[in-house]
Amino acid sequence: MKNQTTSKLQNEDGFTLIDISIMLLVVGILATPFLMEYNTFLKQEQREQTGINIDESISSIGSFYHAQDRYPCPADPTLRPGDANYGIENCGAAGNVLYGAVPFRTLGIEERESLDAFKNKLLYGVTRLQTIVGNDYSKDSGSITVARLRGKNPARNMACSDQATLMAENPSIDLEHVVNTGVHFIVLSHGRSGTGAFNVAGNQVLACPALGNTADAENCNFGADDNFIMHECMHNETEGANFFDDIVLGEGEPEVEKTSSPPSDDMWSRNNTNGSLNNTAGNIGIGTGDPQHQLDVVGSIKASSDYSDPTKNAAALANRFCDSTGSYCFDPNSISGYDPNLNCTDGLPAGGIGSNKAKCQKATTLGSTKCGSNQFVIGFNPDGSVRCGSL
Prior knowledge:
By secondary structure, the protein is of the alpha+beta class. It contains 5 helices and 16 strands.
């Protein structure tokens, strides 16, 4: 009986090491495309989430600007949770542009909104003078330069994937630089590599490489200059001079757009040639890119009243109304109030208004002239006689 059992066990089939190796190889081959697809999906999701956080930071910086009449200073990126000043603006640094982390506690936002999807602090750079109330916040008055890289027509308005395909098929369609100078502030992520970024613990992930070693080195050498590169379609994680994994979606001005400079035909325009916007000498324009007066409007002004609510009566308040040259003006009292200049004396009637005075003239007695057959009164002659004519 013992010999039969041993023989039976020896004759049973099983997996050899070779069988297992072949099976694992097949599973690996079948799983590779799915893993690659998942990795691509994960990277895209991380970039999209980072873009959302950049947008949130920009929006909060804009709200701070409108409430405080200045931009917030960056927070010290080397601080960690638990530090009393962690996430609070630090305005003590020198230089034309201040750099650091988004000051989430000063802005009143959650910490996660000041980080990218790789758990590193977003870089926030801002023109130093524009963190001080009373300075110039007009268009192109910042100290930051951003070079936008984009495909020349017809690739300019295409999605990145389509642009890359078209440019590969047509080498003559190369990239062009659109340089925006005078940018007020910038918010960016140093990408998956974290080159130049600081993590939550306040440690720099990787030191910034020398210019030329990677394409995104320009975005982390801010101790040397205040220039940045912005181009989503430039994303390239191949090691070398073309490496660029930064996510640069945010640069702004007071309107806090994601684009660096509001176009000249924006509804609101500012002209600070005569002084700061915080000074009465500053000019604001609506419908004009070059306001010449404190409020310069090209178009119509409408004030609507809610007649069902007496507290909501609209009015345009002014001491004078003038023509476009400012040479001829009148006092509103001439129309709606009491003005002694509109009184005629000696029993003379008013025949009109001119130069803010009533035009007083003698009354003319109408004659008894009648119009002929098929004629009608069409006016009066200077002597008071009737002017007749056909209609």
